[in-house]
Design goal:
The structure holds three protein chains of three kinds. Chain A is 48% helix and 7% strand. Chain A has 21 helices and nine strands. In chain A, strands 5-4-3-2-1-9-8-7-6 form a nine-stranded parallel β-sheet. Chain C is α/β, with parallel strands linked by helices. Helices cover 44% and strands 22% of the residues of chain C. Chain C is globular, with a radius of gyration of 13 Å. Classes of the chains: A alpha/beta, B alpha/beta, C alpha/beta. β3 of chain B pairs parallel with β2 of chain C, so a sheet runs across the interface.
């Protein structure tokens, strides 16, 4: 079982200075206590091939020297439905099943900054996530969960500042200082205008709020990621892999430019920016995309924005398998899709991963389907060997070419945006939102794909070929009308019990802070939600200053 | 073929009376008939003509993406707030291949559809009421400009006759017909933006000649003042290029930002100012005469071309074409011979 | 003038749901099938759709819903049309579980288009719904 010792057949790279530097960093890393060998007992090197090696600029091969040998990716499962209590139950179950981080899905009214009693919310309360109207819901959501020992992700952008305010207020009520809170809030408003369409205010005021959040968390919440720059939804809306990559990184550059313009030093916040990508079914294209993302981000941060701290150059990202790839037909075969996409995420070097449940094309996942999804990535982590070697596909001609090609296409988009913005990516992104560039590109790509499927040039198994064997749908999780009724009653109770004068005063303070660009909206928001002002009330307190965004874009 | 929905078919007269008394669905139906042309459209024309004439007709044109629809939406909002009943005819190009079209201008105008565009009072955020005073109709060019040249004036007359005022025609200033349609309005607004085609291109498209008011949209963008300067220069030189208005009217240049609504009020004031200018002399009559003449001409051309097609398709036409092909008669004489068949000698 | 008789379809997202990939694809499919699509976009109310359908003299209304809100919003749309005395077929597209098809039809929805419907099916369903209403 040992390797012959007369010649080196270990596959260990040549001892170049680059390799030696990497080796030193690797040796200094704390490693997991698992056998670093194949299932058959063959010892495996931590990395193969040429440098720069993982953890070395520009990080194409990974952000850390030892990658998953030190720490597997975080298995972060997205959950949220019905009432806060329902979701709290699902959270506890996920934690008991080995999940390392929680991820909260909010319902559509919450994402749009509407309370459950808004006429807009009718029929949508608790359907696609959990309804959070007031701090009382946030209290229920995280009841009996140690907020200083887990990391939480909140997938919300339009009213992100209010949700963050509620999270902080809740933690402090529990006795956990804000500085101890670890987690991520999405906050990525550009992708809302471009793809997901859950916006509230126009772009410029929204970016003002985001820079406030960046400043606030930089100063007071060192373990918090104030923004997760998300390509996931851009891809789901129909973009190509390269567009997902390009638009996402461009949005990232835009936030960096905004924060720098707001007077924050790049190295003070850039290390806490994180990304969120889609992992679709074209295995090698996805891996090339992930590798290119790291390289581009590192180069731009260093060369263009003058970052000197290494952490500022690291593109660390969360990955979710492609919801849009799930088929309603023969839903069980989605398990295979998810497994392949999850493996692409792991081989692409993701820092955390959500695997979709096979029944999600039609409804929220059932408990069983959600468990299978988690088990799927546990198999990738513990059985495939993907967890013991970094960037195993690095050096393969196809993968290297794909990485270069993704980068080339992304750079062409950056050049276009710079042109639109007269040299500024931030202005270019504003202009692209305004003139329909992003939505137009995404809609074109979506239509092109649709036509190919329609013409049969592209096969989607179970949809336009191999269609025998569909047994139809069973056991869908339905959210009953009782959730809406419960939530309405709960909201009415909270409004009844709170001190209205205090709420009014707190909301006036939010409006005043919004109107004064030299102030930060976060502290008055935390005050207001602490007084049980509702999400919508706080949103509207700022809307009166910032106005509303209405999409003008073409189809 | 007329019973397009399950409701009992109504006559044109009934629909027209209903539309006059404010029944929006009936007006919607009539507009469809106007678009389709034919005897129904002619009957509508007969009914509407005597009742029309009061409305201020405003044309808005400019390059794609100039912000015309957004500006139109803001004008409509201001007009409705002032108790007026504005109507909009939004003309969008259709696909030359299929004749189908995606008409998206309503999105950019229909501000009240946004959940945020509600009361500022945080405790009262119900979805907004739909403004009954406003009527917006989308029209596709349908690939053939002849249809547009007939349908637009008739639709405008219909809006006018049933009580809408002003009637705003919004169209992309790319084709000659579109430019003609807007140019025949009482007041033509030409919307420009920095860095898009600019004044030189507008000049080429003939837009500068028809403009009564210039709007420089996205005035917060770099280059907006350059556009303004170019326009001023062209207006300064218009007496040299023969583009100067006979009465010495100089179109104002309004700087606006359709995104946040600044300048919309000024645009409306300028449009109304232009109407007053027309009314100080016989400008409105001249415009109306010009408009009617354009419409009659379009009608004649369409009629003649239909007749020409018919006579060419007839046995006699085929024979004449065959003669010409064999070289027995030159095409000039062939055409004269066939024309004689469709135009009576005493008028031809 | 039968060549000019393009079917006019109002397409809208009713409610808060922002998933517009499907409806945008459908808009292009219908355009390419020779129809005139009046695209209302996101965050429409039943009242705004009724107003547009009246003004645009729509032959059909297409709603896209990916939010499990169809059981509330689709019947509300039918009711609003009936209150306005508009007899226009409503077609629902999006994520609709099988078990909801029957109740939606009972509520007056003319047709439901699920994920995976081909371009031909989409255009045909609209044409059939319009034809069924005209007869």
């Amino acid at each position: 079982m040992a390797t012959p010792d007369n010649s080196d057949t270990s596959g260990r790279p040549e001892p170049t200075p680059e390799y030696e530097a990497w080796r030193e960093a690797y040796e200094a890393s704390r490693l997991r206590d698992v056998p670093f060998e194949t299932m058959s007992g063959v010892p495996v090197e931590p990395v193969y091939g040429d440098g720069p090696y993982p953890g070395q600029y520009p990080y194409t091969r990974g952000v850390y020297p030892s990658m998953y040998r030190s720490r597997l990716w975080t298995m972060r499962m997205f959950a949220g439905f019905g009432t806060a209590e329902d979701t709290n139950g699902r959270f506890k179950e996920l934690l008991a099943n080995g999940v390392m981080g929680l991820s909260t899905a909010f319902d559509m009214p919450t994402l749009m900054g509407r309370d459950s009693d808004s006429p807009w919310a009718k029929g949508e309360v608790g359907h696609c996530g959990v309804a959070v109207d007031t701090l009382a819901d946030m209290e229920d959501l995280f009841a009996d969960i140690d907020l200083d020992s887990i990391s939480t992700s909140m997938t919300i952008s339009g009213p992100a500042a209010v949700a963050l305010g509620m999270y902080v207020a809740n933690a402090e009520k529990q006795g956990v200082a804000r500085a101890k809170l670890a987690g991520t809030i999405q906050t990525d408003i550009f992708k809302e205008y471009q793809a997901q369409k859950e916006y509230i205010y126009p772009p410029r005021p929204s970016v003002r709020i985001i820079t406030d959040m960046i400043r606030f968390t930089s100063a007071e919440m060192p373990k918090w990621h104030p923004i997760s720059i998300s390509g996931y939804h851009i891809r789901e809306a129909g973009s190509t892999a390269a567009q997902e990559l390009a638009f996402t990184l461009a949005n990232g550059f835009a936030y960096v430019e905004a924060a720098i313009a707001a007077g924050v030093d790049v190295d003070e916040f850039a290390g806490r920016l994180s990304f969120f990508f889609n992992s679709h079914s074209d295995f090698f294209e996805e891996i090339g995309k992930f590798r290119a993302a790291r390289r581009i981000w590192a180069r731009w941060m260093k060369e263009r924005y003058g970052a000197t701290n290494e952490r500022s150059m690291l593109c660390r990202f969360h990955t979710q398998t492609a919801g849009v790839s799930l088929t309603a037909q023969q839903p069980e075969i989605n398990i295979a899709r998810v497994a392949i996409q999850a493996l692409a995420g792991a081989l692409g070097g993701t820092q955390s991963l959500h695997t979709d449940a096979f029944d999600e094309a039609m409804a929220l996942p059932t408990e069983k389907a959600a468990r299978i999804a988690l088990r799927t990535q546990q198999i990738v982590a513990h059985e495939t060997g993907a967890g013991i070697v970094a960037d195993p596909l690095g050096g393969a001609p196809y993968v290297e070419w794909m990485t270069d090609e993704m980068e080339r296409q992304a750079e062409a988009v950056f050049a276009h945006l710079e042109d639109l913005g007269n040299g500024s990516i931030l202005e270019g992104v504003y202009a692209g939102v305004d003139n329909g560039y992003f939505v137009g590109e995404i809609a074109d790509a979506a239509y092109r794909f649709e036509r190919e499927v329609n013409a049969g040039r592209r096969i989607i198994v179970g949809v336009n070929d191999f269609t025998e064997g569909d047994e139809g749908q069973q056991n869908l999780l339905r959210i009953g009308a009782e959730v809406e009724e419960y939530q309405l009653k709960r909201l009415a109770d909270v409004k009844q019990k709170r001190n209205d004068d205090a709420v009014r005063a707190a909301l006036a303070a939010v409006t005043a802070a919004a109107a004064d660009p030299t102030r930060n909206v976060m502290p008055p928001i935390i005050e207001a939600v602490g007084a049980y002002a509702t999400l919508e009330e706080v949103v509207m307190a700022m809307e009166s200053v910032f106005g509303t965004y209405v999409e003008k874009a073409i189809v | 073929m007329t019973a397009r929905t399950g409701t009992a078919p109504k006559t044109i007269d009934e629909l027209y009376d209903a539309a006059r008394s404010g029944h929006r669905r009936s007006l919607g139906r009539l507009l469809t008939k106007v678009e389709r042309g034919g005897p129904d459209a002619e009957q509508i024309s007969e009914l509407a003509h005597p009742d029309a004439g009061a409305a201020h007709i405003i044309g808005i044109t400019g390059a794609p993406g100039a912000g015309k629809s957004t500006l139109t939406g803001q004008l409509v909002g201001l007009l409705a707030d002032a108790g007026r009943r504005p109507a909009v005819l939004a003309v969008d190009p259709s696909s030359p291949l299929t004749g189908g079209a995606i008409l998206g201008d309503r999105i950019r105008m229909d501000v009240p559809a946004s959940p945020g565009a509600t009361s500022r009072d945080a405790s009262q955020t119900t979805p907004p009421e739909i403004d009954e005073r406003v009527f917006i109709r989308s029209m596709a060019t349908r690939g053939h400009s002849g249809g547009l040249a007939l349908a637009v004036p008739l639709a405008v007359r219909l809006f006018d006759a049933v009580g809408y005022d002003p009637v705003i025609i919004e169209t992309v200033g790319v084709g000659q017909v579109e430019v003609d349609v807007v140019g025949a309005a009482d007041t033509a607004l030409v919307v420009m933006t920095p860095g898009m085609g600019d004044a030189v291109q507008a000049n080429k498209a003939g837009l500068l000649e028809v403009a009564d008011v210039f709007v420089v949209n996205k005035a917060d963008r770099p280059g907006a003042s350059d556009v303004r300067r170019d326009l001023e220069l062209m207006l300064d030189l218009s007496h040299l290029t023969g583009q100067e208005a006979a009465d010495g009217y100089r179109p104002p240049i309004i700087m606006s930002s359709a995104l946040d609504g600044t300048g919309a009020r000024d645009v409306l004031d300028a449009a109304e100012g232009h109407l007053h200018h027309l009314d100080e002399g016989d400008g409105r009559v001249t415009r109306r005469r010009q408009r009617v003449q354009t419409e009659i001409e379009a009608r004649m051309i369409q009629d003649l071309s239909a007749r020409a097609a018919a006579v060419l398709a007839s046995a006699e036409g085929a024979a004449v074409v065959a003669d010409a092909e064999r070289g027995e008669v030159p095409p000039t004489r062939a055409s004269a011979a066939l024309l004689a068949r469709i135009v009576r000698p005493d008028t031809g | 003038m039968s060549g000019d008789q393009h079917i006019r379809v109002v397409l809208a997202k009713l409610g808060l749901d922002g998933h517009d990939r499907g409806i945008k694809v459908v808009a292009r499919i219908l355009r390419d099938a020779g129809m005139e699509v009046i695209y209302l976009g996101l965050r429409q109310t039943t009242a705004s759709i009724v107003a547009a359908a009246e003004q645009e003299d729509a032959d059909a209304i297409g709603l896209s819903m990916h939010n499990a809100s169809h059981m509330t919003l689709a019947p509300a749309m039918i009711e609003a049309l009936s209150d306005a005395e508009l007899d226009i077929p409503v077609i629902v597209g999006g994520i609709v579980p099988d078990q909801d098809l029957e109740p939606l039809r009972d509520a007056g929805v003319a047709a439901v288009l699920g994920p995976g419907a081909s371009a031909q099916e989409v255009a045909e369903v609209v044409r059939d719904a319009v034809a069924a209403h005209a007869s």
